[in-house]
Design a protein that fits this description.
alpha/beta, Spore Coat Polysaccharide Biosynthesis Protein SpsA, Chain A, 8-stranded mixed β-sheet, 11 helices, 8 strands, 48% helix, binds uridine-5'-diphosphate, binds magnesium ion, transmembrane, glycosyltransferase activity, Nucleotide-diphossugar_trans, Glycosyltransferase
């Protein structure tokens, strides 16, 4: 503890981790704004001079990596890595955090479109200096969102809670993690990773910072409905077994009902007035068939997840990395440092 306090007395190095997927319209402008902010924080003595902005190109199909590459060549405040294909937002921020872990005292993950307010960084760093290992950015309201985003986000949080996956409402992935929290996260080897659900379970002293969300200036949301549903299913299946418990309960209730029906039918048969009921038979068998297939599907989701975990494939593959510590360096690389 004493060590921690001593450590916080020295100015910490901050890495901004920025996932990017087809962000060619916004990336140059966002990079400039982020650099201005980082330089201001360094000048104010809030963060160390070696602080950096790390872009993670999540298999973009447009010019995103070309732009990131040029930025990194020109200015040592930027560094970047590129995936071999699109692995998704969660994998992109994880890769950035894990790469920054050995160089940074703290990292903040932020979206490339800068919808999240950069000015909240001051508050994040303040909380870190007060001893927090995790600081969650929570949005103030959803006024800037369209109707679809508003409704889907509300349903997402309600559904997650109902199915036993507790996430902080209105907290996306704008958050600060200290080196200590990153080291703890490194120990989680699961392939099926849902950071919003997982990080709160790690414990540690934490705090919340509220910020305003701006509208996306250019480009469109990369979170398609399909990606949102995948995120929700991954979140639930990686954090909770409640859907399987619900199936068990449902199975028990249906069995109980069947026993009652069997007793009733036998009684009916003995009393001699059994009336043929075609519709009832059809409806019940269709309903039961549907329920059984749906339940099998849910169980299958979990079996599939176990299958993926058992194979333990890499969570992402880094194809290129560009990272310079000083201006006269060519840039070091993990694997190949491919020119785009
Ligand atoms: N993103 C990513 N991989 C994906 C989808 C999105 O790295 O497969 C990044 C994207 O470039 C952005 C962040 O995740 O930096 C959030 O995406 P977006 O702004 O499109 O989501 P929204 O704000 O609409 O929820
Ligand atoms: Mg966005």
């Amino acid at each position: 503890m004493y060590d921690d306090i001593l450590c916080r007395n020295k100015v910490g190095v901050l890495y901004l981790v920025v996932p990017c997927y087809n962000e060619e319209e916004v990336i140059a402008d966002s990079a400039k704004k982020m650099k201005d902010k980082i330089q201001r924080l360094i000048a104010e003595g809030m963060i160390g001079a070696k602080s950096k902005i790390m872009f993670v190109n999540d298999g973009s199909k447009d010019n995103t990596w070309r732009i990131i590459h040029a930025l990194c060549k020109k200015d040592i405040v930027y560094c970047g890595m590129s995936f071999s294909r699109n692995y998704g937002h969660q994998s992109a921020i994880l890769a950035g955090m894990m790469a920054a872990r050995n160089y940074a005292d703290m990292i903040v993950t932020i979206d490339a479109d800068l919808q999240q307010d950069l000015e909240a960084l001051d508050q994040f760093i303040k909380c870190y200096n007060e001893g927090c290992e995790i600081v969650y950015g929570v949005r103030n309201d959803r006024e800037t969102d369209g109707l679809f985003k508003k409704v889907s986000a509300t349903l997402f949080y309600k559904f997650m809670k109902l199915l036993g996956c507790h996430v902080l409402a209105n907290h996306a992935d704008y958050r600060l993690l200290s080196k200590k929290a990153l080291d703890a996260l490194y120990e989680y080897k699961e392939v099926n990773l849902f950071l919003r659900g997982l990080i709160p379970t790690m414990g540690f002293q934490s705090d919340v910072v509220y910020f305003d969300v701006k509208e996306r200036k250019l480009g469109k949301s990369k979170y398609t409905l399909k990606k949102m549903i995948t995120l929700a299913v991954d979140g639930i299946t990686s954090m909770s077994t409640r859907p399987i418990q619900i199936i068990t309960l449902l199975g028990f209730l249906v069995s109980l009902f069947s026993v009652i029906m069997i007793i009733y039918c036998i009684w009916d048969w003995f009393s001699g007035h059994n009336v043929p009921g075609y519709t009832t038979t059809l409806v019940v068998s269709l309903l039961m068939g549907g329920l059984i297939i749906f339940s099998l599907g849910i169980v299958g989701e979990y079996v599939g997840k176990i299958y993926l975990e058992a194979k333990a494939r890499p969570r992402y593959i880094i194809e290129s990395l560009i990272w310079k510590e000083s201006d006269n360096e060519e840039g070091k690389s993990i694997g190949e440092c491919n020119e785009p």
